[in-house]
DNA sequence: TTTATATGTTAAAGTGGTTTAGCGCAAAAC
DNA sequence: GTTTTGCGCTAAACCACTTTAACATATAAA
């Protein structure tokens, strides 16, 4: 017993395939109420489900949105154990699904073959998370698809952008640390790239220090990569700079690593060193002490991204650059500055 | 300029479409070496990429494998912020991709509509993570697809299974706690279901206690749900049973919550209470103290699942039940039992 | 009344692959 | 020496939808 097709529905309800198609897709030149009723009845009776492959072939549109995330360093595996991406993706997927679209995941790392796959399937649009080597953006442009970049500052009219005001957010975070009386504040961060968010966060950090007339010591800036391991390693370096009493990490994952590294060195947090994160990933409340951090509302941001994309795909007017909100979350990893013995 | 099709390749290399198709798909009745060369050349020159929709329509196979994971409780969002699923998925995806397949993610929760989507797209097989209401399995069977269940004990010839030896793993974990001298050992767990892994882990736990002639106190079993929040809540209940000196959690996520809850109550870990986890998700080394746990090699398990599936799809012989290995990882959350003041 | 416009519907022609059936021709088997 | 087998290749039909063009009929406008 083969699968029910649109043809079966047409025969069962005594109309042409085209009328059925019109009803299913809710097209302008609507069928009469009676016809619609008949057809819907038949669809229900015969348990008809449209075949997406046929639909996609005929219309060269797929109701699929490609979502690009990074691969792990050398494994070529989706960087899903980074909760930032995981949470963002579940946000994107849910909103996409609500709008009748489907998410197609693709990783990008040493190779871009995953993008080929995406193009084989005729995706309708692209949402790209994070930042990649230059070349990728050219490749993206050749695909001639509506493309939304999340958290990047690539300048090109082809792309739409979604991000927070990274400069302002870092400024606010640093100010919070300053307000707690800290004067020697480190920045622990991933790689600083011209077209990335971190450069803006660095600017916000510097701006806050300057406004408070604090020295901007380049030795207080620890640049590595976005990950737990780097945070752990940074702990040692940070301790070596023994005046530092607080650290602002540009990602919670780094902050979590920093916490672990500091613990290993026998430091108490926040008594010895205050740690501030960024993102508010789920892990930030699982570490000890729970992280004070900048909430990005990651899932919500993902949903906004998806909705922007579906608007684009339905030719609605969409701003080229959209900003989402940020909010400080106060937990237990930051405390007021207290003079330490060796500072006396 | 329209996309290059197989027809273009056929014309360019002076053969029929069918010959091109045969070469591309590497089919039995091979073309002559010369023809193959000509065709491959044309493919490269014209930058031809097969259209998957067309291929899928014509062959009613899609090179796609549906992967089913749970939705969040009431949000209908993919449960990706549970690192267990996130890690498993990146394993599945990478192995699938290496075999030329593509992963299609679908969530299941209050509704199963996501499964419809999957069937619209003609997926070739199904990998199902975790455990669901009875009804889902009937639905799964009606899809008449090769189906691999990960971590479930549903009895039905239709399904293939992949899991660890949950009983033995829990036995080993509990024995480790016993070997450290603990006598009053709690089990903190998600819901115990007839067809789930937890029932087997409970059995292993009980078996270890029995073998060591320890009392099996039902008050030492804390049944809730698999999640950080439940772990936190369980901490209070566990403390109320003041003889308990160690807890075996059936998931790292629960263990992480337990840690947080115990901290909040001023407990020291492992000095006051030892905590053992299960899974070895990435978070287990981020919490404080780092979790001693049972490693499931989640990513590897995902890869094994994917390889089983592709074997199934290529009609290779496959065992109906496959077991993966488990290994204890000793970190800092378990210590030897020490007599406490109030136990004197 | 005639003409224009909109509505509801349809038949036929794609969309880009694969499946099926079969055709020459050469080598192997009888 | 004839028949069988297998190889390399092809033409045509088909997969389940959408696009296009067009045709009645009803209603509104001139």
Key features of this structure:
344 residues, 3 domains, DNA-binding, homodimer, 41% helix, four-stranded parallel beta sheet, elongated, six-stranded parallel beta sheet
How does this model look, in words?
2 copies of one chain form a homodimer. A 6-stranded parallel sheet of chain A has the order 2-1-3-4-5-11, with helices on both faces. The first copy, chain A, has a 4-stranded parallel sheet with strand order 7-6-8-9, sandwiched between helices. In chain A, strands 10-12 form a two-stranded antiparallel sheet. Chain A is built from 12 helices and 12 strands. Chain A folds into 3 domains: 6-50, no CATH class; 64-164 and 299-325, Rossmann fold (3-Layer(aba) Sandwich); 166-296 and 328-343, Response regulator (Rossmann fold, 3-Layer(aba) Sandwich). In chain A, strand 1, helix 5 and strand 2 form a beta-alpha-beta unit. With 344 residues, chain A is α/β, with parallel strands linked by helices. At the A-B interface, helix 4, helix 5, strand 2, helix 6 and helix 11 of A face helix 4, helix 5, strand 2, helix 6 and helix 11 of B. Chain A binds a DNA duplex (30 and 30 nucleotides) through helix 2 and helix 4.
């Amino acid at each position: 017993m083969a699968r029910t097709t649109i043809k079966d529905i047409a025969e069962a309800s005594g109309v042409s395939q085209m009328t059925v198609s019109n009803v299913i897709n809710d097209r302008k030149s609507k069928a009469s109420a009676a016809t619609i009723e008949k057809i819907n009845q038949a669809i229900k009776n015969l348990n008809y489900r449209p075949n997406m492959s046929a639909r996609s072939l005929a219309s060269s549109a797929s109701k699929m949105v490609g979502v690009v995330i990074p691969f792990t360093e050398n494994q070529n595996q989706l960087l899903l154990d980074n909760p930032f991406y995981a949470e963002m993706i579940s946000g994107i997927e849910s909103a996409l699904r609500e709008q009748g679209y489907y998410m197609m995941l693709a990783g990008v790392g040493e190779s871009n073959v995953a993008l080929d796959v995406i193009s084989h399937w005729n995706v309708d649009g692209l949402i790209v998370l994070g930042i990649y080597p230059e070349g990728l953006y050219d490749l993206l442009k050749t695909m001639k698809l509506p493309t939304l970049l999340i958290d990047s500052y690539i300048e090109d009219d082809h792309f739409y952008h979604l991000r927070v005001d990274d400069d302002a957010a870092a400024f606010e975070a640093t100010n919070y640390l300053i307000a707690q009386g800290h004067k020697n504040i480190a920045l622990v961060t991933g790689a600083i790239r011209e077209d990335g968010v971190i450069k803006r966060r660095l600017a916000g950090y510097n701006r806050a220090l300057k406004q408070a007339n604090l020295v901007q010591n380049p030795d207080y800036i620890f640049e590595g990569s976005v990950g737990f391991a780097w945070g752990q390693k940074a702990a040692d370096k940070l301790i070596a700079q023994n005046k530092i009493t607080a650290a602002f990490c540009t990602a919670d994952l780094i902050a979590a690593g920093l916490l672990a590294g500091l613990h290993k060195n026998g430091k108490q947090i926040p008594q010895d060193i205050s740690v501030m994160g960024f993102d508010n990933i789920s892990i930030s409340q699982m570490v000890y002490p729970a992280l004070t951090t900048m909430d990005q509302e990651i899932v919500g941001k993902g949903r906004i991204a998806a909705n922007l994309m579906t608007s684009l795909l339905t030719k609605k007017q969409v701003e080229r650059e959209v900003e989402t909100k940020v909010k400080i979350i106060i937990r237990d990893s930051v405390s007021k500055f207290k003079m330490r013995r060796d500072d006396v």
